[in-house]
Amino acid sequence: MRYAAQRAGIGVLQLGVLLVLVFALSEALPGDAAYVRFGEQATLDDIGALRTRLGLDAPAYERFLSWAGGLFTGDLGASLVSGAPVAETLTRALPVTLVLTVVTLLIVVPLAGVIGTVAGLREGSRLDRALSTLTLSLQSIPDFVLAIALITVFALQLRWLPATAIGADATTLLTAPALLVLPVLVLLARTTCLLGRQVRAGVIGALHSEYVAHARRLGLPRHVILLRHVLPNAVVPAVQELARVGDGLLGGVLVVEAVFAIPGVATEVVDAVQARDVPVVQSLVLLLGAAALLINLAADLAAHRLVPRTETRR
Amino acid sequence: MRARAVAPAIMLAVPLLAAVLGPLLAGAVTAADGPPYAPAGGSYPLGTDGLGRDVLGVLLRGGGSTLVVAIGAVAVAYLLGGAAGLIAASARRRAVDEALLRPLDILLAVPSLLLISVVAVWWRAEAWAIGLIVAVLHAPATARLVRAAALDAASGPVAEALALQGEPWWRIQLGYVRRAVLRPVAADVGTRVTAAVYLIASVNFLGLGLDPTSADWAVAIAHNRGALLLQPWSVLAPAAMIVLFTVGLNLLWDTMTDSTAAR
Fold first, then answer.
1. Rounded mean pLDDT of B207-224?
2. Taking the CA atoms of chain A, what radius of gyration do you get in angstroms?
3. B76 pLDDT higher than 90
């Protein structure tokens, strides 16, 4: 319990720093909202008037407080380009990204668990070596190269699956799963390999441990040793790895949404960055960053719950 | 070197040579710009891309902004993180240790591709700037690694005796503690360079990094993607270069660390 409170405290602190970081980064962007909205032909008077109206001439800390305060009351600001509230964009884009990531995670965890356990139990065998080389190679191929390769083979040559999910929303993705196959495959490739290798290392570590040797001497059945003693200990580093997989997944989503033209949160971020639409970038980056912090927090707490000894090891 | 390391080493050498020596050769080997998406053959052994550039020329010119920048970024990350890690490991007070490493943890938690895409807006089209951000993003992890590896040696009796003899701090670190750190660092460098290449290539592919007319491999892939069936080489050749490098490096490092590990 003490550990949980401590870890949650660090999480809150991290969130605070993230808030300041995101604000400072967008402050440092050349040209502010007034310039962006008027473009090249603005006069200085126009810009000055708009600045006053948008409250941009207030000191930085006042703007920071009003921005951060707005976030907590659910006011995410509005796009400079389209004028649409960010919250509206989110309600449209977030479900799409959630479908992508949740489907991927639902497949990744059991798949990596099985691959890692099978390879770990047969350490050094031909199967283990083949799986090792395969996962290591697959994990080294950049997402965008894999995506292009899959599109070329399955969408353009064989014509089995659609090449893009343009114009899709969360419900069409769920009702037409063919749209999801290639994007999810791309997201799966790296995450499964990373996680599977971690599970394998965990299983091997546990199999070589003294408590498993002792359990064997006691004559416990193999499946009891595996399920009660090997797997719970092997899962701990894997759970922490899952947090890093979450980070990789967010990066992967950026690439996958761009390649398959899926209108999710990542597409909105990329568009907003390219258009220098500061309020949208601020809110979306903060949201994704907060999601990553939450995943990290959950992973640490879960790891602690599984094997409480991690507390002393900090 | 083991027989198993030969194939990965060759895979790695092709893109690395192209990135390092390519720019010197490019002028002599490649033809002038022609029509866009000309098929392979004649004066264009790999055809031309969407801007009418010789694909072979793009291959020879576009490696540095990915591979050389990534390797440089990892080197800088180890300079920054290594210094912080060594100071943290040899600090007598726990507060110094905590104050150096805790803030870095926050950077570890932020999705890297997200951060880099936002920061890259400042210095658009600058390869070194992207490399610098990648270095900063990797510094927390290298600091942790170096600190963990150096901890026992830096606070052990030998380091203490050296300090009592009046050896300066930096000589203890570079002369003695270094030995404990070198091996874990060597094991880590391979995967870290792969990750850096991965990040840089992804940013450039997404159009958040270098200029869209740059000869960079990832930029060329993004640019010519639409003409994949029309002129496959314009996409496949740069993609093959990146994949050969990342897969080759990871496999090579895997066999090397495998053979050095005392199992």
1. 81
2. 24
3. yes
How far from A231 is each of A131, A212, A227, A306, CA to CA, in Å?
19, 11, 6, 11
**Are the C-beta atoms of B159 and B172 separated by less than 8 Å?**
yes
The domains of chain A are located at: 2-72, 93-306
- B95 in any annotated domain: yes
Give mean pLDDT, residues A273-301: 79
* Residue A93 to residue A276: CA distance in whole angstroms: 19
Residues of B in contact with A156 (CB under 8 A): 228-229
- CA torsion A248→A251→A255→A256, rounded to 10°? 60
pLDDT band with cut points at 50, 70 and 90 for residue B75: very high
Packed helices A278-306 and B112-119: angle between N→C axes, nearest 10 degrees:
160
User: In a mutagenesis test of the A interface, which of B4, B107, B114 is the best target, namely the one with the most A β-carbons within 10 Å?
Assistant: B114
- Taking 50 as the threshold, does the pLDDT of residue A312 lie above it? no
Q: What are the pLDDT digits (tens) for B147-175?
A: 877 777 777 777 778 878 877 877 777 77
Q: Do A144 and B112 touch (CB under 8 A)?
A: no
Tokens of B249: 């490096």
Assess contact for B118 and A285: CB atoms under 8 A: yes
**Interchain pair B117, A140: CB under 8 A:** no
CA pair distance A187, B11, nearest whole angstrom: 25
Number of domains in chain B: 1
Comparing A132-146, A268-282, B4-18, the range with the smallest average pLDDT is A268-282
β-bridge mates for residue B48, sequence order? B54
Cβ-Cβ contacts under 8 Å for A32 (sequence gap 6 or more) = A51, A56, A278
Among A128, A136, A145, A191, the strongest candidate for a mutation testing the B interface, having the largest count of B CBs within 10 A, is A145
Look at B117 and A270 and tell me if their CB atoms are within 8 Å.
yes
In a domain, B124, yes or no: yes
Contact (CB, 8 A) for B142 and B82: yes
Q: What is the pLDDT of residue B262?
A: 38
CATH, residue B152: 1.10.3720.10
Residue A299, pLDDT score? 75
Residue-number span of the structural domain to which B91 is assigned: 64-231
The CATH classification number of A93-306 equals 1.10.3720.10
Output DSSP code: residue A226: I
pTM above 0.90, yes or no: no
Q: What is each CA distance from B137 to B147, B250, B263, in whole angstroms?
A: 17, 20, 33
Inside any domain, residue B128: yes
Partners of A78 in beta bridges = A85
Please, what is the average pLDDT of chain B? 78
A251 contacts B113? CB cut-off 8 A: yes
Is the confidence metric ipTM above 0.85 for this complex? no
Question: What is d(CA A311, CA A313) in angstroms, rounded to the nearest whole number?
Answer: 6
Q: Do B206 and A258 touch (CB under 8 A)?
A: yes
Q: Is the pLDDT of residue A313 over 50?
A: no
Place B72 in a pLDDT band, splitting at 50, 70 and 90: very high
